Automatic annotation (TrEMBL):
Membrane topology (UniProt): Multi-pass membrane protein
Catalytic activity line of the entry: a quinol + 2 Fe(III)-[cytochrome c](out) = a quinone + 2 Fe(II)-[cytochrome c](out) + 2 H(+)(out)
Alphabetical UniProt keywords: Cell membrane, Electron transport, Heme, Iron, Membrane, Metal-binding, Repeat, Respiratory chain, Translocase, Transmembrane, Transmembrane helix, Transport
Protein name listed in UniProt: Cytochrome bc1 complex cytochrome c subunit
């Protein structure tokens, strides 16, 4: 009897095993959901008749007041015929459309549509005229064996840094417009911005930057975003000029303050 009592499991062991099983199951399910959401829709989804019909309904209810019935344009918005699915996915997916307010350019905000609704509207607009399509997952994979992060940095500095700054922190343009920060932006939206040229941004077609080039640029931005700021504050990510100006201004202010303090003491 004593040996049996020693081998008997504690009642809480079963509860602990059950909780461990639930945690593992939940973790695996979450991982699988993230993997599926990264490639939830294929190119075929953007040519599905059902998705096109649903997208037309959403478009007429939310977009036609500015862009017109049939996306032919109007006084408050341009024609969307021929802009392609990528343009709609970028503008709607980043919250720039529908516009929050009138101004020099649309500002990003939380997306008010689900991924499925965004895909359906993109499918509808894509059906009206050919244009840039949603990028394939192969060109969004920053861990791909052929990715060259250093080359992506060179391409970014040559083609993008004059507006977005070398650090990708963004910068001011003319007449109240600006180049936004590219940090924290999804890979798909970065790619779509390059192929559609939103706002004042030029279009980088495959003849300018190949899909592999675009993937390298995205990989560089993602790698840059993991580096942090060894000096402490980012200071707007404007580089050594801003940092030097901050030190010079702060040091000069301290020097003048010390001189004023010494003068008042001597008097």
């Amino acid at each position: 009897m004593k040996a049996l009592s020693q081998n008997r499991r504690h009642p809480m062991v079963g509860v602990a095993l059950l909780l461990l099983g639930l945690l593992l199951t939940g973790g695996l399910y979450s991982l699988a959901s993230n993997i599926n959401s990264a490639s939830a829709y294929s190119q075929a989804d953007y040519t599905s008749a059902d998705n096109i019909d649903d997208g037309e309904t959403l478009f007429n209810a939310n977009c036609a007041s500015c862009h017109g019935i049939g996306a032919t344009g109007g006084p408050a918005g341009p024609s969307l015929i021929g802009v392609g699915a990528a343009s709609v996915d970028f503008q709607v997916g980043t919250g720039r459309m529908p516009l929050q307010m009138t101004g020099p350019q649309g500002q990003g905000k939380p997306n008010q549509f689900s991924e499925e609704q965004t895909m359906q509207m993109a499918a509808y607009v894509h059906s009206l005229g050919t244009g840039p399509t949603i990028p394939e997952e192969e060109y969004l994979d920053t861990d791909h064996a052929d990715v060259d992060v250093a080359r992506g940095g060179d391409l970014f500095r040559v083609n993008c840094a004059m507006c977005h700054s070398a650090s990708g922190g963004g910068g001011a343009l003319t007449r109240g417009k600006y180049a936004p920060s590219v940090h924290g932006v999804e890979e798909q939206h970065i790619y779509e911005a390059m192929v559609t040229g939103p706002q004042n941004m030029p279009v980088f077609s495959d003849s300018n930057l190949t899909p592999e080039d675009k993937r390298d640029v995205i990989a560089y931005l993602k790698e840059f975003g993991t580096q942090g700021y060894p000096g402490g504050a980012s200071l707007g990510s404007l580089g050594p000029v801003a940092e030097g100006l901050f030190v010079w201004t702060g040091g000069l202010a301290l020097l003048i303050g010390f001189m004023v303090w010494m003068t008042t003491r001597s008097s």
